[in-house]
Amino acid sequence: MARKVILDVDPGIDDALALCIALFHPELDVTAVTAVGGNVSAAQATSNVQAILEHLDPPRLPRVGAAADPEGGLPVDGRYLCGVDGLGGIGITVAERQHLLPSEKVICDQVRAAPHQITIVALGPLTNIARAFARDPELPGLVGQIVIMGGTLNSPGNITPTAEFNIYCDPTAARKVFRSHSTKVLVPLDVTNRLELSYDVFNLLPDETNPVGWFLRQILPPAFRNYRQQLGLEGIHVHDTVTLMSLLYPSLFTMRSMPGDVEILGELTQGMTVFDRRRVPAWRHNMEVAVDMKKDEVIERIVQGLQKAAE
Ligand code: BDR
Ligand code: CA
């Protein structure tokens, strides 16, 4: 039976790629896609989710949740890598706007409707999940698991010297989720940064006659351009897609159980993830953390996932 998932996303080219794979994957039943502000504002993230779903037209249409920015607003955004609209500036818009419930309400409803069965794949800041837990305090124990793209273990951050983007956008929310009594898997930058998709991937993508092929061929060239101009890299990182792969193909990843938390106050370290790795840790283990992956096999699975999405 397909695994029920909620995709919590801030599209974002990286998130959009993960959506293309997940929405058409036979082993996943995407019951909802909830938007969260991060790479782009809450309003733009919501409109991007709707536009992507409308364009891709997956076999089963998931519920959609609308994002609202965190209190105090987003401290940063990811437009320097994702383009003005988060999707490479391709100008894809939604033709038919629906009335949407807030993302946290959608998460609560979905988890309550299928207790212990839902996996939340959190590919943006943890704002919605923290809000859902505040709205329904029993929810952490009712979620199957949360798979989170975020944080760093030993490597530097990507938005400050010490912090990873998703956690930095809403550190208070991240701390609440880390400290909640839910089952969590964290896929940090140390692992996701190891994989770069090279431009050769273009030769393997579905062609333009297919909606997935068309979409990928629109959003990926701006990503390659921005990675070269902003980071001096010839390939692109696909953090969110790697995280999705850890759920679909766990045997390709090495996991370690760890006690993790988030720094919310530090002048230089706000949004940094901290793990108690002392010989005798005082904190309780609260998550599985990805520490390694079989990179070449993960790349193969990503390409296969994108090809299958177009079949
Ligand atoms: C994360 O931040 C965003 O820019 C990406 O979409 C990804 O979720 C990587 O740090
Ligand atoms: Ca993201």
Keywords:
12 helices, 19% strand, binds beta-D-ribofuranose, 311 residues, binds calcium ion, alpha/beta, Inosine-uridine Nucleoside N-ribohydrolase, Chain A, two-stranded antiparallel sheet
Report on the architecture of this protein.
The chain is of the alpha/beta class. It has a single domain, classed as Alpha-Beta Complex (Inosine-uridine Nucleoside N-ribohydrolase, Chain A), CATH 3.90.245.10. The protein is 38% helix and 19% strand. It has helices at residues 13-23, 42-56, 79-82, 103-113, 127-135, 139-142, 165-169, 171-179, 189-192, 211-231, 239-248, 295-309; strands spanning 3-9, 28-35, 63-66, 101-102, 118-122, 145-149, 184-187, 196-197, 236-237, 253-258, 260-262, 273-275, 287-293. The protein has a nine-stranded mixed sheet with strand order 4-3-2-1-5-6-7-13-10, sandwiched between helices. Helix 1 packs across helix 12. The longest helix is centred in the C-terminal third of the chain and has 21 residues, at 211-231. It is globular. The mean pLDDT is 96.
